[in-house]
């Protein structure tokens, strides 16, 4: 698609061979050429009055040119004048018309102007053929632009994830409203949209305009039909949309498709020229938006001669056509069975809950799920303190020094004071002196603070980076890769060791950390199969460190803080409770991060976050529901 060359009907004649002459030159061909160039220049510049004034019938020409501007909305004309022929008071000028159509390929065709000699020069004959040689009296052009069928976004098996789906547009016809406050209240109760917002939209709408409230899939509409169907003024036109299997199905990754917004149209413009138009079905978020051009393809058009009333003149009088070019499919690593189990698991919680699942060894994101209470994008881009899930990374740093092994005796007092600030274990439990594995399995904060303070200041950040934490992942859909400071000291350094302080993670990144531990190869996230790597694979921890860490994570499940998962196969993990905010007692997020080997869907690494869950127990429960819901491969 070529870029726009000027304002609407406002480009100049860049290919004119000679300047427009103000008076006769004494050479008839030059005078004719000048008259034709002047007419075309005014037409291209949008000066209809000047162009029409240079014709044999200004009124008829005005009507013709204005109709053409309507038929080819916002198009820009670039004329190229060619051969001139003069014969006894009449002349013809061959020219090429090139229309830069909005959000469509250019339309170019050869045309001819007829001119007649007048008292003061030459006038263009006002006739439909000056617009197009096949346009006759009482006819106009019909431009029909269309997009190709949107290319598929598929699952790991190559099956499309989006399909045309019936939807019901719940809205208001202002002309039928008898009691706006009651209508707004009724629609609000059924849809959850604020009554004040509904009323304001109706009051602001022009007369006779449909006012949308919410668009629902047919089953969701049927669930509220009895509440809304008889409300005076409520109307329910149906439509078809390209939708994923369910409203929340991997929405953080896949995104959604819908009528183009002004923001998306501006985002997709090329050199200021729109690639797409209002009303187009475009990607509004996720991969559907990030890979817009690849999935949408290139628009095409047809131009047909029709009667003035819009009725087709002669059947088949199509003047020109450019077929739309289909886009290219995008294959994701999503596995439907895993995604479905994840969706069912997060739905067991009323609090905002996220679950991200990654394939160890490949980094492929096989599921990403958030329940209705959650902002779905936070599964990828949320920045949360990870709490004791961070102890996977802290243990990596401690084991890498060689001063600790899983069997090394370590102190686990109920409280620990750093620079006058007291930290404690949950309920101030005190294990005395226990092997490092036991302190890890029971999530002893005081142990990790004591030991963490002995590490070099940058050791925790170095261990985190070995799993890819802090990497600027180059992905279609952003993933926050975490932040672990390398220069913290004192109380902040101690708090960082237990995932508090200044440490931040996303659920997706913690799942990637678990994947790296499971496979021994740090995981680089994969959102699109076959895409360029999202970043460099980190060097990773030493194999001996991982060999020591994995049994510690297994012990968390066998006898530690996630023992309720002991019957879910070969599961490894780490719980986490992460305090945040200023409330007393503080609010806390609940985490579980880990992996399952040789499960019904193969090796899977995952991270679960329950926002404000207050303890890791709720995240363990979601994990239990997830693992229990995985079907046999």
TrEMBL record:
<protein>
    <submittedName>
        <fullName>Cell division protein FtsI/penicillin-binding protein 2</fullName>
    </submittedName>
</protein>
<dbReference type="InterPro" id="IPR036138">
    <property type="entry name" value="PBP_dimer_sf"/>
</dbReference>
<comment type="similarity">
    <text>Belongs to the transpeptidase family.</text>
</comment>
<dbReference type="Pfam" id="PF05223">
    <property type="entry name" value="MecA_N"/>
</dbReference>
<dbReference type="GO" id="GO:0046677">
    <property type="term" value="P:response to antibiotic"/>
</dbReference>
<dbReference type="InterPro" id="IPR050515">
    <property type="entry name" value="Beta-lactam/transpept"/>
</dbReference>
<dbReference type="InterPro" id="IPR012338">
    <property type="entry name" value="Beta-lactam/transpept-like"/>
</dbReference>
<dbReference type="GO" id="GO:0005886">
    <property type="term" value="C:plasma membrane"/>
</dbReference>
<keyword id="KW-0732">Signal</keyword>
<dbReference type="GO" id="GO:0008658">
    <property type="term" value="F:penicillin binding"/>
</dbReference>
<dbReference type="Pfam" id="PF03717">
    <property type="entry name" value="PBP_dimer"/>
</dbReference>
<dbReference type="GO" id="GO:0071972">
    <property type="term" value="F:peptidoglycan L,D-transpeptidase activity"/>
</dbReference>
<dbReference type="GO" id="GO:0071555">
    <property type="term" value="P:cell wall organization"/>
</dbReference>
<keyword id="KW-0472">Membrane</keyword>
<feature type="signal peptide">
    <location>
        <begin position="1"/>
        <end position="22"/>
    </location>
</feature>
<dbReference type="Pfam" id="PF00905">
    <property type="entry name" value="Transpeptidase"/>
</dbReference>
<dbReference type="GO" id="GO:0051301">
    <property type="term" value="P:cell division"/>
</dbReference>
<feature type="domain" description="Penicillin-binding protein transpeptidase">
    <location>
        <begin position="355"/>
        <end position="617"/>
    </location>
</feature>
<dbReference type="InterPro" id="IPR007887">
    <property type="entry name" value="MecA_N"/>
</dbReference>
<feature type="domain" description="NTF2-like N-terminal transpeptidase">
    <location>
        <begin position="34"/>
        <end position="139"/>
    </location>
</feature>
<keyword id="KW-0131">Cell cycle</keyword>
<dbReference type="InterPro" id="IPR005311">
    <property type="entry name" value="PBP_dimer"/>
</dbReference>
<keyword id="KW-0132">Cell division</keyword>
<feature type="domain" description="Penicillin-binding protein dimerisation">
    <location>
        <begin position="148"/>
        <end position="311"/>
    </location>
</feature>
<dbReference type="InterPro" id="IPR001460">
    <property type="entry name" value="PCN-bd_Tpept"/>
</dbReference>
């Amino acid at each position: 698609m070529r870029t726009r060359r000027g304002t609407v009907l406002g480009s100049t004649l860049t290919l004119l061979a000679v300047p427009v002459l103000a008076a006769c030159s004494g050479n008839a061909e030059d005078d004719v050429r000048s008259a034709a160039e002047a007419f075309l220049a005014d037409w291209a510049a949008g000066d209809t009055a000047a162009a029409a004034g240079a014709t044999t019938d200004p009124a008829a020409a005005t009507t013709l040119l204005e109709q053409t501007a309507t038929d080819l909305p916002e198009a820009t004309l670039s004329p190229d004048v060619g051969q001139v022929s003069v014969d006894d008071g009449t002349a013809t000028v061959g020219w090429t018309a090139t229309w830069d159509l909005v959000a469509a390929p250019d339309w170019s065709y050869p045309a001819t102007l007829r001119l007649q000699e007048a008292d003061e020069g030459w006038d263009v004959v006002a006739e439909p053929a000056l617009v197009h040689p096949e346009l006759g009296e009482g006819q106009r052009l019909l431009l029909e632009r269309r997009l190709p069928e949107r290319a598929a976004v598929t699952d790991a098996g190559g099956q499309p994830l989006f399909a045309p789906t019936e939807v019901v547009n719940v809205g208001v016809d202002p002309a039928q409203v008898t009691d706006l406050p009651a209508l707004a209240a009724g629609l609000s109760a059924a849809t959850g949209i604020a009554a004040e917002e509904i009323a304001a939209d109706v009051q602001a709408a022009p007369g006779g305009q449909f006012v949308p409230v919410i668009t629902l899939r047919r089953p969701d509409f049927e669930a509220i039909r009895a509440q809304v169907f008889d409300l005076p003024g409520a109307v329910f036109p149906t439509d078809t949309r390209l939708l994923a299997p369910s409203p929340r199905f991997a929405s953080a990754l896949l995104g959604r498709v819908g009528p183009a917004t002004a923001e998306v149209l501006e985002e997709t413009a090329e050199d200021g020229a729109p690639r797409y138009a209002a009303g187009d079905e475009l990607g509004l978020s996720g991969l559907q938006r990030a890979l817009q051009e690849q999935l949408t393809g290139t628009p095409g058009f047809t131009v047909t001669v029709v009667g003035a009333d819009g009725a087709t003149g002669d059947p088949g009088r199509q003047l020109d056509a450019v077929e739309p070019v289909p886009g290219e499919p995008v294959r994701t690593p999503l596995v439907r069975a895993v995604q479905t189990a994840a969706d069912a698991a997060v739905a067991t919680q009323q609090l905002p809950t996220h679950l991200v699942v990654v394939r160890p060894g490949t980094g492929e994101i096989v599921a990403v799920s958030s329940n209705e209470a959650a902002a779905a994008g936070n599964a990828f881009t949320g920045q949360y303190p990870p709490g004791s899930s961070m102890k996977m990374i802290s243990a990596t740093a401690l084991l890498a020094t060689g001063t600790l092994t899983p069997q090394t005796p370590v102190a686990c007092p109920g409280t620990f004071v750093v620079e006058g600030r007291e930290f404690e274990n949950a309920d101030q439990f005190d294990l005395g002196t226990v092997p490092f594995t036991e302190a890890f399995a029971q999530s002893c904060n005081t142990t990790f603070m004591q030991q963490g303070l002995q590490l070099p200041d940058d050791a925790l950040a170095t261990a985190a980076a070995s799993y890819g934490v802090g990497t600027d992942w180059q992905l279609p859909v952003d993933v926050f890769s975490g932040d672990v400071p390398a220069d913290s000291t004192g109380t902040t350094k101690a708090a960082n060791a237990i995932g508090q302080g200044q440490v931040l993670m996303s659920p997706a990144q913690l799942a990637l950390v678990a994947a790296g531990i499971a496979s021994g190869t740090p995981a680089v996230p994969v959102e699109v199969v076959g895409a360029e790597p999202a970043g460099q694979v980190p060097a990773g921890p030493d194999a001996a460190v991982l060999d020591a860490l994995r049994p510690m994570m297994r012990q968390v499940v066998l006898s530690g803080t996630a023992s309720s998962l002991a019957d879910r196969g070969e599961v490894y993990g780490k719980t986490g409770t992460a305090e945040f905010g200023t409330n007393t007692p503080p609010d806390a997020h609940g985490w579980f991060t880990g992996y399952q080997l040789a499960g019904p869907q193969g090796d899977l690494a995952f991270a679960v976050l329950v926002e404000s869950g207050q303890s890791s127990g709720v995240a363990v429960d979601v994990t239990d529901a997830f693992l229990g819901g995985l079907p046999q491969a």
